[in-house]
Specification:
The chain has 522 residues and is an all-alpha fold. 78% of the residues lie in helices and 2% in strands. Strands 1-2 form a two-stranded antiparallel sheet. Strands 3-4 form a two-stranded parallel sheet. Helix 6 packs antiparallel against helix 7 and helix 7 runs antiparallel to helix 8 (209-230). Residues 1-21 are annotated as: Disordered. The chain crosses the membrane at residues 52-72, 89-109, 121-141, 143-163, 183-203, 211-231, 280-300, 324-344, 366-386, 395-415, 427-447, 457-477.
């Protein structure tokens, strides 16, 4: 007669009574707490409408933050009058906000606000309150130093939704279902900076630059309140940890979460050390991560370069007003939307067929990036060389659309490629890419004005076009030789081996379960 381990009944109100946990409830053999099948405490088992509503709020937060970063860029003339500053000093206000996107996560690691330890909900509450406070203060600034410092701190806290919202979506949807949600989420950081100047231009022209900041405060504040009210904690490890505490308090026995059992209890110092140093290890020691990050950073930097370039091209050279000048971004915005539609179509028609046939590998993500890699320089060169007074203004705006189209089709597949390649290390890899592109996005606007005034519109716009042209072969090369390269890189090889072992374990477990069913039926 085989010995059967005692199991703990679940009675927390989060899962149905009758579900059982393995273990004995002792120090040597604690009950192992994990999500059960159809467990309502697992965010992945929530209703589709609820999950999509939460995902929409999380994505809207990313859009609001990036919208705020660029809406400021069209207020130059009014800020000049109020503070008597140069163009270069004004642009620092844009750059510092974007630089905060890179610095923010490192700061939180030091002060202990990490979602791995405390969950995502507390980060949402603290960072949105802080953004509203700092942006509200910047709207009332009486000198330029206060304006710049407060925008930097607003950007520092604004970096939280850029990282945390993607994690929230991953908490809600299993990999096979999260493609559409992540596609829309990944477009928000590019659509926000493009639409910010359009709205900001008309607000600045009508009621002044302080109300541009005020509108952003209201926008972020409303989104923050929506999140506080409607987004509960979604991070699985934290939810399981809370459940272990509830169960232990209820009956006095020993419970540990399945992750703590498998990985050990994480000390805050260990989490902080990993958060601070691991992204840099991947960035500088993994060629795939470095090249992909450089490519994405050039695109991201070019998006923010346009914040300084568009006023020169259309306001200075063509004499447009601040409000009308913001409409020049519509061409790129339309391109981004078309890129989103293409990405969704490609995922549903091509990639999901490969996934269903179990023939998808990380390189299967890259064909759209090959198309986008061609569209990027076409859009940039077309924008650069159709901006003559003799050519109608609509031509350059329309021809900037391929750049927006290419942004989505390069960034999204490359991010998915990095996730599929590094799997267990994906969070650190994406953090490395995000930090690098945020730094580049902060630097590009600093030299935009001088570059356009010294080189002229055509050659200044051609420089990022040449950079994207140099990067164009990367998706094609990785599509052809990516598997061989991955096997030669330390961490991508480790990730592949780990996933292979996990799949073997799952197969073995499934086989054992089938045998047990057959035995019991006999």
């Amino acid at each position: 007669m085989s010995h059967t381990e005692p199991k703990a009944p679940v009675n927390t109100g989060e899962v149905e009574n009758g579900h059982l946990y393995d273990g004995s409830g002792t120090e040597d053999d604690p009950f192992i707490v994990e999500f059960q099948k159809d467990d309502p405490g697992n965010p992945m088992n929530w209703g589709q409408s609820r999950k999509w509503f939460i995902a929409a709020i999380a994505t809207l937060s990313v859009f609001a933050v990036t919208f705020t970063s660029s809406a400021y860029s069209v207020s130059a003339n009014e800020v000049f009058k109020d503070f008597d500053i140069s163009t270069e000093v004004f642009i620092v206000g844009l750059s510092l906000f974007v630089l905060g996107f890179a610095i923010g996560p490192a700061v939180w690691a030091n002060i202990g606000l990490r979602s791995e330890l405390y969950g995502r909900q507390i980060l949402w509450i603290i960072t949105h309150i802080a953004m509203v406070a700092f942006l509200g203060g910047s709207a009332g600034s009486q000198n330029v130093a206060t304006l710049l410092i407060l925008r930097f701190f607003a950007g520092t806290f604004g970096g939280s939704p850029l990282v945390n919202s993607g994690g929230t979506i991953a908490d809600l949807f299993p990999p096979a279902q999260r493609g559409l949600a992540l596609t829309i989420y990944c477009v928000a950081p590019f659509l926000g900076p493009i639409l910010g100047p359009i709205v900001g231009g008309f607000v600045s022209e009508s009621v002044g630059w302080r109300w541009v900041q005020g509108v952003c405060v209201i926008f972020i504040g409303v989104v923050g309140i929506l999140g506080i009210v409607f987004i509960p904690e979604t991070y699985g490890p934290v939810l399981l940890q809370r459940r272990t505490h509830q169960l232990a308090k209820a009956d006095g026995k020993i419970y540990v979460s399945v992750l703590e059992k498998n990985q050990g209890k994480k000390l805050p110092s260990e989490v902080f050390k990993r958060a601070l140093f691991r992204p840099w290890i991947f960035l500088f020691l993994e060629p795939i991560v470095l090249i992909a990050s450089v490519y994405m950073a050039i695109i991201y930097g070019t998006v923010y370069m346009f914040m300084g370039a568009m006023p020169i091209v259309y306001n200075e050279d063509r004499g447009w007003s601040v409000g009308i000048g913001g409409l020049a971004f519509l061409g790129i915005a339309v391109g981004i939307i078309f890129g989103l539609v293409y990405a969704i179509w490609d995922n549903n028609v091509r990639y999901m067929k490969l996934f269903a046939a179990k023939s998808a590998n990380p390189e299967s993500r890259l064909p759209p990036a090959i198309v986008g890699g061609v569209a990027l320089p076409i859009g940039m060169f077309a924008f650069a060389w159709t901006n003559y007074p003799s050519i109608h203004w609509s031509v350059s705006i329309i021809l900037s659309a391929p750049f927006g189209f290419g942004c989505v089709l390069v960034i999204l597949p490359i991010m998915n490629y990095l996730i599929d390649t590094y799997t267990i290390y994906a969070a650190s890899v994406l953090a490395a890419a995000a930090i690098f592109r945020s730094v580049v996005g902060a630097v590009f606007p600093l030299f935009t004005t001088q570059m356009y005034h010294n080189l002229g519109i055509h050659w200044a716009s051609s420089i990022p076009a040449f950079l994207t042209l140099l990067c164009m072969p990367f998706p094609l090369i990785m599509y052809r030789y990516g598997e061989a390269v991955r096997m030669k890189c330390k961490y991508s090889f480790e990730a592949a081996e780990m996933m292979r072992k996990m799949q073997l374990q799952q197969t073995a477990a499934a086989t054992t379960t089938e045998k047990d069913k057959d035995s019991s039926s006999e």
